[in-house]
Amino acid sequence: MIREMRIVLRNAGKINPASIDDYISAGGYKALKKARTMDRKDLIGMLERSGNLRGRGGAGFNTGSKWGSAFQAEGPEKYVICNADEGEPGTYKDRIIMENDPHTVIEGILICAYAIGAKDCYIYCRGEYRDINALLKLAIMQAREKGLCDDVEIRVASGAGSYVCGEETALIESLEGKRGEPRLKPPFPTVAGFRRKPTVVNNVETFASVPVIVEKGADWFRAIGSLNYPGTKLICLSGDVVHRGSIEVPTNVTIRDIVYGFGGGIQDGRAIKTVQVGGSSCGFISPEHLDISVDFESMRKIGGALGSGAVMVVDDNHNIVDILVSISEFFAHESCGKCAPCREGTLRVAELVKRVADGEGIQADLEQIRTLADHMSRSCFCALGQSATTAISSAMSLFPNDFQSKLKAQEV
Amino acid sequence: MSNVNITINDKPVSAAQGCTILEAATSSGIRIPTLCFLKGLVPHANCRICVVEVEGSRTFQPACATKVSEGMVIHTDSPAVRQSRKNTLELLLSRHSVDCHHCLRIGSSKCDDLDPTFCEMCFFCDCVREGICELQALAREYKVDILPYKLQPELYSIDLSTECIVRNPNKCIKCRRCVDVCTNVQTVHALSIVNRGSDIQVMPSMGKPLAESPCVQCGRCVQVCPTGAIHGLDKKDELIYHTHSYTTTTIAQVSDDVLDELAKLSKMKRSELDICHIVAGLKKIGVDYVVNEEVALSRGQAMAAQCLAENAATCERPIIITSSHAAAQFVNRYFPSLSGNVFSYDSAQQQFGKLVRENWSQEIKLEPSKKIYTISVTSNNDNKGEATKNGSVDFVINARELYRIFLRTGVNLKKIKKVDPDIFGVAVELAPPMMRLLAPVVWEIGSSVEEMDVTVGGLTLKAVVGKTLGHARQLLEQVKNETSPYQIIKISA
Predict the structure, then answer these.
(1) For labelling alongside B289, which of A382, A391, B342, B388 has CA 20 to 30 A away?
(2) Does domain B3-77 have CATH number 3.10.20.740?
(3) CATH architecture of B313-345+428-490
């Protein structure tokens, strides 16, 4: 049986998260000291070329390239932002990392600050994570007392419950005190981000992976998991499996291993219908693709996405339309309202899906849902709107019968 | 600046580096429809009407905000793009109150053979945008025929609190032009976006009625709103009633500034239209006397010049002069410490109202038994607020409303025989520099302040003309910080 491999969560359950001494005695902050002796370019190059660490938030952008771009950007004023606004339904990996080992995140942030030459860092923490907010503040205070922060300032900012603020430019707007709405790109944050200055925005899991790579070297890291997406990934398993929970696995582990190995199979011995990988913004995959490994490129090849690493298992007892109701309502609730296709489209999709699920729908409603899904995926302003209908599109092509069986019986 | 080579609709185009797809297309004669875009302001790319297909890009790109790059291949009117625009319009229209659109002649593809002017004359369509709604025009262009969604009931109440600017949130398509102009151009900060998702709304600050917000009724939001969500209070019916009535005397003053817009609306060349056509049209609908603004304008300016000359030596510096009610309000609201420095003089409209009441009623022997109604025809939208607050005239009509009145009453500007305006009183000559200082200002996004030296009462003073309330803020901030180099500051809304 395949076992968990804990790199990011190496200290989880072993140390007291509120104690910096525990973290240091477990080898913490060594990587920071090592990084600070390295040349900045070498440090970034290590992550970029040899390490190939790719962003764990969902977009899979090469972390080193991002840092390199911010490093090269002109001007003395630069920022590092840790995106801890975890809002994807079914995802709670950042929470587990921060709850168990806040210092590894802080160490990652400090390494980044050194690499790009930033003096101000922010952790934008999801508003609902109140305890974590306090824990992070405590950890920052401890690190400062130990003199580890040098002249770098880390602040914790709290989100106010908006999903779109997990999008990096919306996060920056929110951090600046404005409406949490995405910005036009380009310019990208590495060129003009927070306060229009070069800014690196990385996910919690990405920062948490950095210290180990710096400490153990790029070659070590690259040997783990898939070639194109090395390292480990935190997976949040939910749905109709026997054991739900979060696990950390090398990226060459397959979805089948996760569902049947770690998850212990489907509840009550039923058959699997589909798996949604990546959270509500990603598509459903058919059971025939269960042997795909959880890395970014493999998932993309089958037309899916790894996203945040949430795995939601659906057994054959469900009609997929019922699941889509809550997904489409989620997006209608979370749309920021900036662009017309998303603002009105998410509302209409939710309305139509609800109607079909209630047995009131007709064939024309299905066609309208499909039209809207195509429209929104190409014309919306940001990734929220563009991916709001991904799950619906994939469900419509995988399970057309689920939709047909829900339609209102037409009088002949 | 170097150029890049791009292809738009299979046509090779050379465009300046750093320009947007919209600019490149426009300069090479290709039209891309827009809705939220306003020239001179940072594009928001909210409405997604200007989306185009860029080869190699997974998603459609907004033409207003996407910069061109070497070798870009762009399709602005492909079936997929047209479909996308149509889908967006369907979504927008199904949440736009339909009391203008129920007249489906306007968008119907089945009625292609109908003369569009017929639609604009339709009496059932009570659209306050005088039938020239940008949303309606796009709906017609993209043949938005049947809306595939459940239409929403009218959710929001109409805000009539200012008695001159009406806010109807049911017609708002959230393009944010008004918010942008109010915040970034006028710096009044009366309007903002509240809520999120489909509950989003443009609201006066703190959710209060417009009259209780910082709004100074400059009317620029009315000017930029593409639909009828913010519009001037409609008094056309009342106006037409009085012009037709034999028991009242109506007298109108026409400002030249309506000519440009009116020519565009009437599909005439600007050179084909002059003020005499408007005079003829107004007389035809029963306005008894029509004058141009020359006399009133020059008299207002002359009185201002005289007053300045008498007081220049003793006045507190800088002297802030304005003929705009909204600008004066703005100073009171945001720079109360400077309100003592404000010297207001009569605009053409205010002076006209006074002249009719005080002088001309005797001169033209208006029958004392008949009630007099004054009408000011001007494109300057802040005049509506001024008339409401000061009661200077009874009706203020802008170019759009005038166009609509002419359509309704069958006045065809292309065919009407010109009539010269009536002349009462004489215009006063002014020295050119003074004239320049006191001349009415055309409000425009992206304009800049104008500096000049004027001689007042034997003193040569450094003067500046601010053309928007944003300029006013900038100039008055300087005064506050004691860095202002000017002795006379003219502000307008």
Answers:
(1) B388
(2) yes
(3) 3-Layer(aba) Sandwich (3.40)
